[in-house]
Design brief:
The structure is a homodimer of 94-residue chains.
Chain A (H helix, E strand, L loop, with lengths): L1 E8 L5 H18 L3 E8 L5 E8 L2 H9 L1 H11 L7 E7 L1
Antiparallel strand pairs in A: 1-3, 1-4, 2-3
Helix pairs in contact in A: 1-3
Chain lengths: 94, 94
């Protein structure tokens, strides 16, 4: 199994807008990507800070996720609320 | 749902020893903690770097995890292989 952690810092005042789109994206991923075993967005203790936690069967499932219409469209929407590019960790489950 | 991400830096040369204990801990958590919905240890791209990704029903499930014999015993074993204290993010799923 492969996992991804993406840390996102949102612009001040844009938290609610970001959360709405993130929740829509999570719902679409979970409904449409059989190779994705977990896709959640979480709020951290620090202000304006979120983490996506993602788990995939294999590299092909990650490629399919990134190529999906919902990821491209909603990812672009979320990007407008971000204060900086996401910090992404690509992980291999032991 | 609540989530925890714990970033761990392992001492050089102790990676295999750490991985063995981490895998044993993950197996015991998944077999014995009904309130824990995910407990995996993942290797990052950076050397000596690992992430535990954990997901719980509620705060009581986290308390039960920390109080368990397997966490106390294997956590102590893992601690001997770490180069620094874990960096822990406590998260609320949105």
């Amino acid at each position: 199994m492969l996992a991804i952690i993406a840390k996102i810092t949102v612009k001040a005042g844009e938290e609610s807008s970001f959360e709405l789109v993130a929740a829509e994206l999570a719902a679409k991923v979970n409904a449409n990507e059989p190779g994705c075993k977990l896709y959640i967005c979480c709020k951290a203790a620090a202000p304006q800070t979120y983490f996506f936690i993602e788990r995939y069967d294999d590299e092909a499932a990650i490629v399919a996720h990134r190529a999906s219409t919902h990821f491209k469209e909603l990812g672009k929407k979320m990007g407008a609320f971000m204060a900086a590019p996401p910090e992404i960790e690509r992980l291999n489950e032991i």
